[in-house]
Amino acid sequence: MSETSTKPYLLRAIYEWCTDNGYTPHLAVVVDSRTRVPMEFVRNGEIVLNISFSATSGLKMENEWIYFSARFGGVPRDLAVPVDNVVAIYARENGQGMAFEPGTAADTPTANADAGAAPALASVPVSLEQSSADDGRPDHEPEPPKKGGRPTLTRIK
Q: Predicted confidence band at 10 (pLDDT cuts at 50, 70, 90)?
């Protein structure tokens, strides 16, 4: 019997972390012939999907597939995403989450050899502007992330 990939468990864990902290979980997905998503929203062979409770209906994150319904332009659509096609899951508000190599399971020997190490949680690097404002005092609190901007995802290899 072959071992189950850790990737679906990591996806479910980050999803739960996002929802527990009031963040909006997003999936970045590489689209191929097996992926069932609205093709008109695919850009450069990828799509980013809001998988929050308020944006989806019937979300099922299984070991091989992620299924849910969502509205696109007011029209409900059924989506199916192979877990292998997920390249990242992250919180929209702060960019924290986890990225994966496309088309590989997270715990296969090839995936770990290519990445150099097992996947790990990482945060988006602090911008130069923010880091220069930090004077090194332990009581200095960083400013909360700005609302309304478009989220960015940084892939760390």
A: very high
Residue that has been written with the tokens 């929209």 in this structure: 92
Rounded Cα distance between 25 and 154, Å, is 15
Q: Is residue 44 within 8 Å of residue 119, measured between CB atoms?
A: no
Give the whole-number percent of the chain exceeding pLDDT 90.
60
Q: Is the dihedral of CA 56, 147, 39, 155 positive or negative?
A: negative
What are the percentages of helix, strand and coil residues in the chain, rounded to 5?
20, 30, 50
User: What gap in Å lies between CA 1 and CA 143, rounded to an integer?
Assistant: 50
Which domains, ranges and CATH numbers included, belong to the chain? 7-133 (2.30.30.220)
Rounded mean pLDDT, 107-117:
40
Q: Are strands 56-61 and 46-50 parallel, antiparallel or unpaired?
A: unpaired
**Alpha helix positions (H), 1-108:** 7-20
**Mean of pLDDT over the chain:** 78
Q: Cβ(56)–Cβ(68) under 8 Å?
A: yes
